[in-house]
């Protein structure tokens, strides 16, 4: 469900010459491409950092961050592109909460052990090996690098191709945390840890079914589509561009955007942002759970994390309201159906 974003189009913010915008978009894509293709991206390290050497980051304690640093260090030593470090850390967050889990007897999931809950019975190694974080991370990366085009896959699909989990969609909820943790322990900026993509490419902003369409008979003023993604899923820039608006759009203002909205008591997009792309295209992302991960004026690459799925504003539950506009027009007059728009660009959302 979507509320219409507040009017007041700032045309000057998107009236950028084709030459200048193309240069901005090319620069935004360069780092993301390096994260996916350059095995030397990021400084090297000769040995894992001791667990005691790290401080807590968010919900993750010193021991957990230490294990994440080992995973990152092993990735560096194996010359895995930095995007692979994020995949590995997110997988370990889901499998073990970044804890080196030993034999818990009847509480164990089969014979699963270690950071990645790898199983001796499935050929991952013997119990002692799997309890060694360096060995476990090496095994994860070895299998990841065998996955065809893993760099082009959404994180949850890349991780699932290695882990073969009974809950294959669970990895995506940790992507935001994994990016933040990897950025902290590696010294890289978060923009260098996104999915592959650059100027001229398009990608799905989030994965999920279309739960409400564009200007349907029941909702003729619905200027985009609602994608039924789970709370906490990472929202990505659909293409390279420049962030031209970041707002909390809600009425009454006293409700605020840092909590769930309501389908009848409030109006507005909640936390949302607009991105200006080449050729006068603008994309909009609404109902984020918190302030977007980007700022106005920032350039982003295709696939770069820009927010977290939530339910702020005029909303009945977690989802992403996604709009596409043409002609540099962010009003309803410039809106077009995102489904055929994205399909034409090789990134179908239906």
UniProtKB/TrEMBL annotation:
The region called Disordered is annotated at 313-350
Annotated protein name in UniProt: M23ase beta-sheet core domain-containing protein
Q: Which domain of life is it from?
A: Bacteria
The molecular function GO annotations come to:
metalloendopeptidase activity
Source organism of the structure:
Virgisporangium aurantiacum
Span of the signal peptide:
1-22
M23ase beta-sheet core domain location, by residue? 221-329
User: Which UniProt keywords are listed?
Assistant: Signal
- List the InterPro entries hit by this protein, alphabetically: Cell_wall_metabolism_enzyme, Dup_hybrid_motif, M23ase_b-sheet_dom
The protein's matches in SUPFAM superfamilies, at most eight in alphabetical order, are given as:
Duplicated hybrid motif (SSF51261)
**Biased composition range(s): Basic and acidic residues:** 320-329
Pfam families membership: Peptidase_M23 (PF01551)
Species lineage: Bacteria, Bacillati, Actinomycetota, Actinomycetes, Micromonosporales
PANTHER family annotated for this entry?
L-ALA--D-GLU ENDOPEPTIDASE, PEPTIDASE-RELATED
Q: Which CDD domains match?
A: M23_peptidase
């Amino acid at each position: 469900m979507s509320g219409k974003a507040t009017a007041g189009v700032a045309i000057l913010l998107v009236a950028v010459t084709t030459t200048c915008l193309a240069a901005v978009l090319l620069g935004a894509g360069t780092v993301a491409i390096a994260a996916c293709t350059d095995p030397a991206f990021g400084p090297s390290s000769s040995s894992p950092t001791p667990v005691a050497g790290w401080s807590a980051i968010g919900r993750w304690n010193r021991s957990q961050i230490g294990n994440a640093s080992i995973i990152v260090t092993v990735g560096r030593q194996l010359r895995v592109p930095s995007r692979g470090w994020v995949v590995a850390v997110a997988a370990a967050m889901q499998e073990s909460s970044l804890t080196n889990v030993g034999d818990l007897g009847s509480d164990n999931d089969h014979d699963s052990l270690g950071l990645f809950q790898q199983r001796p019975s499935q050929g991952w190694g013997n119990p002692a090996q799997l309890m060694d974080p360096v060995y476990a991370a090496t095994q994860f990366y070895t299998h990841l690098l065998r996955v065809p085009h893993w760099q082009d896959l959404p994180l949850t699909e890349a991780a699932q191709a290695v882990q073969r989990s009974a809950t294959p969609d669970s990895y995506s909820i940790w992507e935001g945390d994994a990016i933040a943790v990897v950025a902290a322990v590696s010294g890289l900026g978060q923009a260098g840890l996104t999915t592959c993509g650059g100027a001229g490419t398009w990608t799905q902003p989030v994965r999920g079914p279309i739960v409400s369409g564009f200007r349907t008979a029941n909702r003729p003023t619905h200027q985009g589509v609602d994608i039924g993604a789970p709370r906490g899923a990472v929202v990505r820039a659909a293409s390279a561009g420049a962030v031209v608006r970041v707002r909390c759009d809600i009425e009454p203002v006293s409700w605020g955007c840092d909590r769930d909205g309501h389908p009848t008591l409030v109006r507005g997009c909640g936390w949302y942002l607009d991105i200006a792309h080449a050729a006068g295209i603008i994309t909009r992302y609404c109902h984020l759970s918190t302030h977007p991960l980007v700022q106005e004026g920032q350039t982003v690459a295709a696939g770069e994390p820009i927010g977290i799925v939530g339910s702020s504003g005029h909303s009945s539950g977690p989802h992403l309201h996604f709009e596409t506009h043409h002609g540099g027009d962010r009003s309803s007059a410039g809106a077009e159906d995102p489904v055929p728009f994205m399909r034409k660009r090789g990134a179908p959302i239906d």
